[in-house]
């Protein structure tokens, strides 16, 4: 063993150090409070400690009618003054009414002015000037806080949309408006509020049933283990039952087609051809033609013959595939620790995801407050231009565009760091993909090394090394970090290109240029195929690295040509393995899901008293089913890696050895018997 792809190893380490440095820089400049706290028109956080807004945690919109939708309220800037308040208004009121009665009803003015700009306390100022300068809102309506923002308190009464049981309100500008003017916002907000209600109920269900969910996942783990152990005895039986079942179903289909074909004989119109009746939207018309059933019968006959011929000519390779599946089950039985290695991969990927997400948030919040001109007039030429709130009142903008304001828009900046934030985000995403693929590659190489030590042991299990999984992990880290990083780098580049293509496709979705859409579709398809091919090559390259300790390119080349020399065996083994593992996942997830369904619906008399009372029984049920499938997938991915490793070892064994005393085979006795004497000769290898 020696270190492989050392240049890539050095680059990988440097990139990791640079990634750490990027995270530190992002953490220094970023401020996640910009995501947590809403920001008013002055760029100040609502609810931030040790500020004037410490007790004002909610954002209030002067004129919510100017906001197009809740999405604009949350993500973009609404073209109206936004103010931090301690609580949302709980009544209808207009500035005109409050100003007219402030002398003899000071309580109304004191209540209303808390929704005006800080420090404004001049009810004698003319209404036109107040509304022009947006010192106070023209109206307030009953609202409630949601996402730390004041939204109108919508409700429905007898199917009619209301706010505080009223269907109309005065807008403070001399007009009486209907609550339906807020319908666009109301629909989205009510949907969000309904979703919040459902979310709370789902959270309650999880809080009550989490213990039973864990028990269900534990049962799924036990069932998955039992399935893998029993595969050495049931792999062949399950496969042949499925094959003969397919043959039987197709045979029944042939008989049914012939019966329909014969039954339609003599019926008027049944002898017409498909060409005669042309295209029909009601496809049942075609089922009244004898020609249709004849075509179905011919197609099924061809499929039946192909399957039977494949079974006849590929029977020996199918037997080898089943024997390798049984051998894989036996290998896992001897190295049980491999079943729990996916936990290590999961932890590494979870760390990568967490670091990427935190760094992305800090990068996204690294900017300084940017202020823009918000004008009520649509023809104002200064609208959406950047401005300085400290000098804004001394400019001519307020004269040329009456009512215009310099309000906070978003976070950005003009420094070198802020100009390259987008590049840093791309780098963050790219290194994240690289690290995730490296974690997966490390797991594949580690498992391959452990299972290869099983295959190449002369006497099984006596010659299997002590702690094969830990030894393989140490070899992969010590000698082959560069090779694993090289393979992960190639895959990460392709995945980043796919992400960029998806982004471009999303941006150009509304375009009418059909050629551009066609070109993007072709590129997405090509890179999807390339990614699948690279994953296949990388997987087998890591196996060869674990076996022989060569660099990535050499291992990938040798693995590729070895597989091409055994392409039929590869295809048969791949499909047989996929079928059995898919069947296992369905059995585990379906079996545990059925058990969970009967339990959570209190249909098991013995546990009826133990079952929790839920708002939605499907919440823990779906969690158990999906979790069971993922648990089974984790265990079966180890099994699939085991089978792939044993297959490459088996092919190498056939090519390097001839079964003689000087070059004995390392394969098991069952594989030895299946191959027979003829295929054991060197010429047939």
Automatic annotation (TrEMBL):
Report which superkingdom the organism of origin falls in. Eukaryota
Task: Fetch the InterPro entries from UniProt.
Answer: Choline_transptr-like (IPR007603)
Q: Report the GO molecular function annotations.
A: antiporter activity
Q: Which family does it belong to?
A: Belongs to the CTL (choline transporter-like) family.
Subcellular location(s) per record: Cell membrane
Q: Which residues cross the membrane?
A: 7-28, 210-230, 237-255, 293-314, 334-358, 431-456, 477-501, 579-600, 621-641
Look up keyword DNA repair and say if it applies: no
Report the protein's function.
Choline/H+ antiporter.
User: Cellular component GO terms, alphabetically?
Assistant: plasma membrane
Q: Which gene encodes it?
A: Slc44a5
Write down the membrane topology. Answer: Multi-pass membrane protein
Which species?
Pluvianellus socialis
Q: Which UniProt keywords apply?
A: Antiport, Cell membrane, Glycoprotein, Membrane, Transmembrane, Transmembrane helix, Transport
What name has this protein been given in UniProt?
A: Choline transporter-like protein
Q: Which reactions appear under catalytic activity for this entry?
A: choline(out) + n H(+)(in) = choline(in) + n H(+)(out)
């Amino acid at each position: 063993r020696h270190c492989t792809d050392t240049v890539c190893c050095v680059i990988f380490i440097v990139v990791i150090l640079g990634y750490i440095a990027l995270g530190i820089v992002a953490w220094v400049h970023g401020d996640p409070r910009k995501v947590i706290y809403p920001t008013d028109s002055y760029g100040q956080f609502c609810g931030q400690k040790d500020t004037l807004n410490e007790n004002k945690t909610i954002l209030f919109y002067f004129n919510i009618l100017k906001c197009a939708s809740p999405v604009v309220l949350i993500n973009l800037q609404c073209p109206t003054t936004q103010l931090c308040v301690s609580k949302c208004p709980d009544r209808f009121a207009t500035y005109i009414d409050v100003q007219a009665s402030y002398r003899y009803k000071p309580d109304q003015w004191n209540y209303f002015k808390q929704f005006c700009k800080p420090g404004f306390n001049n009810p004698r100022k003319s209404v036109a000037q107040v509304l022009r300068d947006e010192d106070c809102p023209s109206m307030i309506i009953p609202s409630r806080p949601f996402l730390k923002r004041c939204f109108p308190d919508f409700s429905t009464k007898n199917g009619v949309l209301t706010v505080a049981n009223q269907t109309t309100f005065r807008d403070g500008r001399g007009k009486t408006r209907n609550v339906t003017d807020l319908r666009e916002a109301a629909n989205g907000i009510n949907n969000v509020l309904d979703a919040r209600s459902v979310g709370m109920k789902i959270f309650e269900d999880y809080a009550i049933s989490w213990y039973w969910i864990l028990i269900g996942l534990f049962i799924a783990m036990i069932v998955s283990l039992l399935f893998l152990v029993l595969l050495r005895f049931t792999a062949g039986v399950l496969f042949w039952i499925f094959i003969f079942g397919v043959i039987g179903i197709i045979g029944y289909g042939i008989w049914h087609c012939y019966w329909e074909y014969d039954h339609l004989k003599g019926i008027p119109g049944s002898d017409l051809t498909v060409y005669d009746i042309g295209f029909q939207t009601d496809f049942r018309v075609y089922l009244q033609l004898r020609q249709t059933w004849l075509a179905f019968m011919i197609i099924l006959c061809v499929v039946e013959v192909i399957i039977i011929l494949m079974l006849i000519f590929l029977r020996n390779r199918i037997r080898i595939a089943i024997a390798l599946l049984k051998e894989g089950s036996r290998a896992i039985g001897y190295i049980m620790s491999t079943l729990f290695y996916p936990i290590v991969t999961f932890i590494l990927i979870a760390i990568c995801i967490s670091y990427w997400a935190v760094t992305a948030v800090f990068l996204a919040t690294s900017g300084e407050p940017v202020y823009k001109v918000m004008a009520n007039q649509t023809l104002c030429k200064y609208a959406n231009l950047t401005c300085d709130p400290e000098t804004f009142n001394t400019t001519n903008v307020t004269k040329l565009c009456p009512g215009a304001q310099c309000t906070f828009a978003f976070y950005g900046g003009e420094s070198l760091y802020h100009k390259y934030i987008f590049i840093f985000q791309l780098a963050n995403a790219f290194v994240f993909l690289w690290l995730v693929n490296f974690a997966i590659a490390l797991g594949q190489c580690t498992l391959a090394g452990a299972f290869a030590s099983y295959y190449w042991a002369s006497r099984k299990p006596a010659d299997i090394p002590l702690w094969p999984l830990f030894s393989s992990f140490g070899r992969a880290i010590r000698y082959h970090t560069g090779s694993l990083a090289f393979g992960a780098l190639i895959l990460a580049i392709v995945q980043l290109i796919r992400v960029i293509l998806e982004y471009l496709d999303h941006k150009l979705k509304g375009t009418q240029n059909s050629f551009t859409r066609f070109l993007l579709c072709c590129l997405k398809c090509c890179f999807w195929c390339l990614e699948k091919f690279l994953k296949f090559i990388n997987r087998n390259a890591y196996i060869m690295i674990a076996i022989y300790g060569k660099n990535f390119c050499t291992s990938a080349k040798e693995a590729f040509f070895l597989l091409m020399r055994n392409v039929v065996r590869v295809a048969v083994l791949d499909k047989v393995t996929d079928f059995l593992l898919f069947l296992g996942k369905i059995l585990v997830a379906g079996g545990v899901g059925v058990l969970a369904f009967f339990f959570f619906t209190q249909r098991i008399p013995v546990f009826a008293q133990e079952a929790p009372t839920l708002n939605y029984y499907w919440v823990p049920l779906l969690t158990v089913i999906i979790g069971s499938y993922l648990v089974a997938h984790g265990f079966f991915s180890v099994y699939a890696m085991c089978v792939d490793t044993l297959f490459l070892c088996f092919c190498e064994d056939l090519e390097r050895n001839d079964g003689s005393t000087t070059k004995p085979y390392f394969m098991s006795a069952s594989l030895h018997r299946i191959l027979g004497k003829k295929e054991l000769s060197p010429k047939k290898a």
